[in-house]
Amino acid sequence: MAKPNLSGHRPTTIDVLWLNSLVHIRAGFRAIFVRPAMALAEIAWRWAFGAAAWALVIFAIHRVFSRVDVTQLELLIARHSDLFLIADACARIVVQVLPQLAREGLVLVPAIAGLWIAAGTVGRGITLNALFSAGNPEESAVFAGVEPNQPATGATGRRTVRYGPLLLLHLVRALFTIAALIAGCGAVLLAGVALAAQNPAAAAGVSLLLVSVVMLFWAMVNWFLALAPVWIVRDGRPAFAAISDSLQLYRRDPGVYVGIATSFGLIRALALVAAIVAALIASQASPAAAVAMNVVIALVYFAVADFLYIARLAAFVSLNQSALSAISMPSPVPESFLSASLPPAGHNG
User: Fold this and answer.
1) Please, what sign has the CA dihedral across residues 62, 66, 72, 74?
2) What is the Cα–Cα distance from 182 to 191, expressed in whole angstroms?
3) Which residues pair with 159 in a beta bridge?
4) pTM greater than 0.85 (yes/no)
5) Are 347 and 83 in contact (CB under 8 A)?
6) d(Cα 238, Cα 244) in Å, to the nearest integer?
7) Where are the alpha helices (DSSP H) in the chain?
């Protein structure tokens, strides 16, 4: 007999979705706290890529400005109080910078993309391999569910990661991101050419709208691409089949899926607000101290953001495992069906 609800409150659908989301969020954080090296590996490969990318950007900017010829006359004009002369001097400099910047961009963008593909492939393979490692005495029951097509594990209990599909998946993500950047720039140029002469405000508004649409489309597609490595590492799936599995996870339980994503988004937004407030407080110090403290605050925020990213990934793994376990378990026969099918007590017919 079902236990009566003494509180008189019936849980709503939103309550159930929130509780289910909370279960998987806790499982994600628990998986990271059990394996803290996984969070450190996530931070390490992301920061290594970020440092290398910034080094390339700074080197490219140095090359651009080293080739710009600024005459003494232009420097004197720039120091002049006449705003029109200053604008004219700046325009002359920009005309020299833009071709150099375009040439550097043709090399810089593919270089950063290739660097990200390599770092993402190796880093994601290592972190997910640690998440799915077998033989761990503290392995969460959530991650011990059904694992079809499980790759072979070595003597240490770790899977043999297939880096080929991971490399292809990150190549697709990089090409898609570059295509989205080109689409955004093209939208701004088209809106400027069509409307700038007639109505600059309308051109700016249309450009912002088109860029927002492109960014929203990129964010939605990139979200599913970012989860696809789970099925590559865990099940040994090909890259495009893993993308299909990532979409299927959303279709199975969209409410809980959105609940997990929203919760981690809110936590990250709170962390960003806290970092901004701390940076504003630090800016009241002396210039050197303010710069040093802001660098530390930025690094702490990036570390927290990377930690939340890998915890969110583990939460979605928990959701997928529970969905697979539910599919593999036979459905119980409803009690109403049994009472309607069985003959009454004492009937021998």
Assistant:
1) negative
2) 14
3) 153
4) no
5) no
6) 10
7) 13-34, 36-66, 72-78, 83-131, 163-195, 200-227, 229-235, 239-252, 254-282, 287-328, 335-341
Mean residue pLDDT of the chain comes to 79
Whether 207 and 187 have beta carbons less than 8 Å apart is answered as yes
Question: Shortest CA distance to 94 belongs to which of 60, 64, 73?
Answer: 64
Q: Are 236 and 151 in contact (CB under 8 A)?
A: yes
Longest CA pairwise span in the chain (Å): 113
For 292-341, what is each residue's pLDDT tens digit?
Answer: 999 999 999 999 999 999 999 999 998 888 877 665 544 444 444 334 43
CA distances 83 to 22, 71, 328, Å, are 58, 18, 73
| Tokens standing for residue 251 | 């279709």
> Do 249 and 257 contact (CB within 8 A), yes or no?
yes
Higher pLDDT: 68 or 158? It is 68
Q: Would you state the pLDDT for residue 144?
A: 43
184, two tokens: 């955004």
> Which long-range contacts (C-beta less than 8 Å, at least 24 apart) are formed by 209-216?
210/184, 211/184, 211/187, 214/180, 214/183, 214/184, 214/187, 215/180, 215/184
146: left (phi over 0), alpha (psi -120 to 50) or beta: beta
Provide the angle, in degrees to the nearest 10, between the axes of the packed helices 36-66 and 287-328: 130
Q: Are 311 and 42 within 8 A, CB to CB?
A: no
| Residues 183-218: b if buried by 16+ CB within 10 A, e if exposed | bbeebbeebeeebeeeeeeebeebbeebbeebeeeb
Q: Which amino acid is at 287?
A: P
Please list, in sequence order, all residues whose beta carbon lies within 8 angstroms of the beta carbon of residue 194, skipping any fewer than 6 positions away. Answer: 203
